[in-house]
Amino acid sequence: MPLPDGLTAAIAAVEAQATALSNRYDSAQAAAVTLTDDLEAAEQRAMIAEAKLARARLRPGIDVAGPDNTGTIPGEPRTSWNAPGTVGKAAVAPGTYDAQDFYGDCYPADPAGTYLFRGCRFHGGVGHPSGNRGCFYCWNLTTGWATFEDCTFAPDSPSYYRDGIVGHRYTASRCQSFGGTDGFGVNGNGGAIIEWPYVPWLTWFRQDPAHTDGTHNDPVAIQGGGPNVVRDGNLACYVKVADTSTGPNTRPAPNGMFYGGSAIIVNQAKSLDVIHDTTISGNLLSGGYAQLQLNNNRGTGYVLAVTLGPNQYDRDVYNNSRAAVDKRWICLVPNGGAITANMAEQRWADDGTALTPGLATGIRTV
Predict the structure, then answer these.
(1) Is 237 left (phi over 0), alpha (psi -120 to 50) or beta?
(2) Which residues lie closer than 8 Å to 342 by C-beta, 6 or more apart?
(3) What is the pLDDT along the chain (366 residues), one digit of tens a residue?
(4) Secondary structure of residue 223 in the 3-state scheme
(5) Contact 294, 333 (CB under 8 A)
(6) DSSP 329-361
(7) Which of 195, 191, 208, 217 lies closest to 288, judged by CA?
């Protein structure tokens, strides 16, 4: 029996209302999702802004670098400057670069150019290059200067020939470097300013064309030139063994990694410019064969002079003697020449007392 016309119309009206309600519900759900996404995006932007503000407020000589106040900021989106997996070198033109990923072993295209990198990550090239390089390397700068703020240097493809950043005429502020052979290298006549550097670990290879005992891994390595400043860093001289290492590391550390070279080494190489006007202050050093090594490789007739402000030393360092204690938190290697540095403000991180000369008390001359 057919329904009365009035009832059919009423049913149709109810169905239409239900459809409209369903559509409004779907629209409300979509709006809620959009609102949630907008809220999460706003919260992420607020966190990034807060992190940048906190970094801008870091106090020289008081605040020390760490994982949360250095390197690229988590959650901040980046774009790729070039293709991931770039093999070999990559020349970068002068300019300002914000929040970008760089692949390949990058270097300045113009030796006289000015470069500013903010919030960038440098991934390095692929495989072993033919000679020493870095994820960014700037030996070729003449009158130019490169500045890095809140950047991360971490090779996707570690190599015994690939540092984090190396060269001269650069400033690195609040930057992280890990996974390379050295973290921050200085070996040119123009010097470098390295402030609030953070290095948690580096990569060790048994095979190294430059050393018979494997790579010498140093979070900061100064080998020539000046003026140089290394301040307020957190430099842990520990290494992880590369997957492609041809042999094992025999210097295990209590944290599950292995001891590296020196957290900071000032090594006056014979073939490089004279180190001058070098200041090291406000750093926390840990691990290593040594934590601060001053090496006068020019030897007789040469004075290696370094200005040391207050620095702190962790108790964990490699023991060079199996039969007794021979630890070298500060290792002085005059090689027949002279080393001048003020040791009065070199103190233990745990109790603030001063390091003193001795096999187990902090300062060792070899």
Answers:
(1) beta
(2) 307, 308
(3) 565 666 667 767 777 786 777 777 677 677 667 767 677 888 889 989 999 999 999 999 999 999 999 999 999 999 999 999 999 999 999 999 999 999 999 999 999 999 999 999 999 999 999 999 999 999 999 999 999 999 999 999 999 999 999 999 999 999 999 999 999 999 989 999 999 999 999 999 999 998 999 999 999 999 999 999 999 999 999 999 999 999 999 999 999 999 999 999 999 988 888 999 999 999 999 999 999 999 999 989 999 999 999 999 999 999 988 788 999 999 999 999 999 999 999 999 999 999 999 999 999 999
(4) strand
(5) yes
(6) EEEEE-TTSEEE---TTEEETTT-PBPEESTTT
(7) 217
CA torsion, ordered 207, 213, 215, 217, to nearest 10 deg: 160
| CA-closest candidate to residue 203, choices 173, 254, 250, 244 | 244
The reported pTM is 0.90
Structure tokens at 225: 């030139």
Residues ≥6 apart with Cβ < 8 Å to 211: none
Among 282, 229, 279, residue whose Cα is nearest residue 61 = 282
- Cα–Cα dist 184/180, whole Å: 9
What's the CA gap between 67 and 86, in Å, rounded?
27
Asked whether the beta carbons of 136 and 102 are under 8 A apart, the reply is: yes
The first and second tokens of residue 320, run together, are 């060079």
Q: How far apart are CA 273 and CA 233, in angstroms?
A: 25
Burial class (CB in 10 A: 0-12, 13-18, 19+), 48: middle
Residues 6+ apart with CB under 8 A from 255: 238, 316
In 3D space, the residue among 148, 155, 153 whose CA is nearest the CA of residue 169 turns out to be: 148
- Is the bond preceding residue 227 a cis peptide, omega within 30 degrees? yes
The C-alpha atoms of residue 146 and residue 140 are separated, in whole angstroms, by 11
